[in-house]
Design a protein that fits this description.
With 180 residues, the protein is mainly alpha-helical. It folds into 2 domains: 8-73; 103-172, no CATH class. The protein has helices at residues 8-24, 30-37, 50-65, 91-101, 121-133, 147-162; strands spanning 112-118, 137-140, 166-172. The chain has a 3-stranded parallel sheet with strand order 2-1-3, with helices on both faces. Helix 1 (8-24) packs across helix 3. It is globular.
């Protein structure tokens, strides 16, 4: 466990650990980096407390503002802007936009329907690009799934089964009580 008050050496070690983690695995959410920093194998493991989270959060914020961590290495999947822009300056820009948005349904002729379920938004932020690349739906449950979330997901699966698809769900969670 870490001491309540961090020494300058502790701060430097934590910063080094965060940079190493984000150089090896990115993008990540602040929450995901925090959980990685609680690993006992680290030279300076962070306590699994609110204060521990704040230490990691503050270190990341400071290093981003100093230019040590690029903003692109941290994601925040919990906040999505609602935009109302979307007009086009010309018919050509409209066609470019449509071409950019087009992608072939690579699963259409497959016997499988694949989904990735993630226990938290923090890990979902890490998985989002990969799921998008392979046209796989991603379902982050935010720790605990609501009845509505489960119902809507099950209705989608029933539709896929009725179309003759075999269902493959990849679940990604951690080994805490909620993840089990």
């Amino acid at each position: 466990m870490t001491r309540e008050r961090m020494t300058n050496a502790d701060k430097a070690q934590l910063r080094e650990q965060i940079v190493d983690e984000l150089n090896d695995h990115y993008p990540q959410s602040v929450s995901h980096v925090y959980y990685r920093m609680t690993a006992p194998r680290l030279p300076y493991p962070i306590a699994k407390t609110d204060k521990g989270y704040i230490k990691v959060q503050n270190a990341i914020q400071q290093m981003r503002r100093e230019g040590i961590i690029p903003f692109s290495k941290i994601v925040d999947p919990s906040r999505t802007p609602i935009t109302n822009s979307g007009g086009h300056s010309s018919p050509a820009s409209f066609l470019e936009d449509i071409e950019y948005r087009y992608f072939k349904d690579i699963w259409k002729d497959s016997i499988y329907h694949v989904e990735v379920w993630a226990e938290s938004l923090s890990i979902a932020g890490v998985l989002e690009d990969v799921c998008s690349k392979y046209s796989v739906d991603l379902f982050p449950s935010k720790g605990f799934s609501s009845d509505t979330f489960i119902y809507e997901a099950s209705q989608n699966l029933i539709d896929k089964i009725e179309c003759g698809k075999e269902i493959l769900i990849v679940y990604i969670g951690d080994y805490d009580p909620s993840g089990k």
